[in-house]
Design brief:
By secondary structure, the chain is of the alpha/beta class. It folds into 3 domains: 40 residues; 82 residues, Methylated DNA-protein cysteine methyltransferase domain (Double Stranded RNA Binding Domain), CATH 3.30.160.70; 98 residues, Arc Repressor Mutant, subunit A. Helix content is 47%, strand content 14%. α4 packs across α5, α4 packs across α6 and α5 packs across α6. The radius of gyration is 25 Å and the shape is globular. The chain starts with a helix and ends with a helix.
C-alpha cells in the first residue's frame, strides 16, 4: 500500500514537472517572438500632411518608411499599422517637414537625389517580393504587370501582381505608378488614374490617349 502511494505521489510530481516545463517553454517562445518584434520596430511614428496630390499619411519604423498613402481616415491607417507590426502607432509631427519637402520637391518635377529605406513588414510574401522587384525601376521609365509577373515566376501571375501593387503601403518611394498594362494603358492606381498619369508625366513619361509608348519608356526589371 505504501509503495502504491509513493508511486502515485511520484506520478503527480512528474506530471507537475512536465506541465511546468511546457508552461516555461511557451512563455520563453512568446517572449522570444515579442523581442523579435521589438527588434524589428520598437516604435511606429506617423503623421498626416497636405501635398500637391492631396492629403497623405506617412509612418516610420526603425527600419525606415513603412507607410506613405493617400489619406482615408486616421483610424483605418492606425489599425492597419497595428496589424502589420503589433504596435500602437504614435503621432510625431516632427516627421512632417522632411517628408513634405521630399514629396513636394518630387511633385515639382525635381528628380530625387536620395531615397528612403522602406519597411514592408507585415505584407504577404508574394506582395513583398513583387514590390521589392520594382524598387530599382528607373525614374521616368515603366514596366508592365506582365514584366513583373515574369520576374515573379510566370505571366499567369499578372493579376496577382496587380493585386500586390494595390497593396503598396509606400507610394512614390515604391514606384507602383510606373507599372502599367501590356497595351500601354495605365492599368489601376489607388489614388486614381489622374494622379497616376500626373506622376508619370512629372517624370517625363508621355501619356497620349490614355496610353504610354512602351517602346520608348519601357525598362527591364
Amino acid at each position: 500500500m505504501m509503495i502504491k502511494q509513493m508511486v502515485q505521489k511520484f506520478k503527480r510530481k512528474w506530471i507537475f514537472l512536465i506541465r511546468l516545463t511546457k508552461y516555461y517553454a511557451f512563455h520563453c517562445e512568446f517572449r522570444k517572438i515579442n523581442l523579435q518584434k521589438g527588434e524589428i520596430c520598437m516604435e511606429i511614428t506617423y503623421t498626416i500632411f497636405d501635398s500637391l496630390i492631396g492629403t497623405l499619411f506617412t509612418a516610420f519604423s526603425r527600419r525606415g518608411m513603412c507607410a506613405l498613402q493617400f489619406f482615408r481616415d486616421e483610424k483605418s491607417h492606425l489599425d492597419e499599422l497595428k496589424e502589420r507590426f503589433g504596435f500602437e502607432p504614435v503621432l510625431d509631427a516632427s516627421l512632417t517637414r522632411t517628408v513634405i519637402r521630399f514629396v513636394n520637391n518630387y511633385l515639382a518635377g525635381n528628380r530625387p537625389m536620395y531615397s528612403w529605406n522602406v519597411d514592408l513588414t507585415g505584407l504577404s510574401g508574394f506582395d513583398k517580393k513583387a514590390l521589392e522587384s520594382i524598387m530599382n525601376l528607373p525614374y521616368g521609365r515603366v514596366a508592365t504587370y506582365a514584366d513583373v509577373a515574369v520576374k515573379m515566376g510566370g505571366k499567369n501571375l499578372a493579376r496577382a501582381v496587380g493585386n500586390a501593387m494595390s497593396h503598396n503601403p509606400v507610394i512614390i518611394i515604391v514606384p507602383c505608378h510606373r507599372i502599367v498594362a501590356s497595351d500601354g494603358s495605365l492599368g489601376g492606381y489607388g489614388g486614381g488614374l489622374d494622379v497616376k498619369r500626373r506622376l508619370l508625366e512629372i517624370e517625363g513619361v508621355t501619356v497620349f490617349g490614355g496610353k504610354i509608348e512602351l517602346q520608348k519608356f519601357r525598362a527591364p526589371l
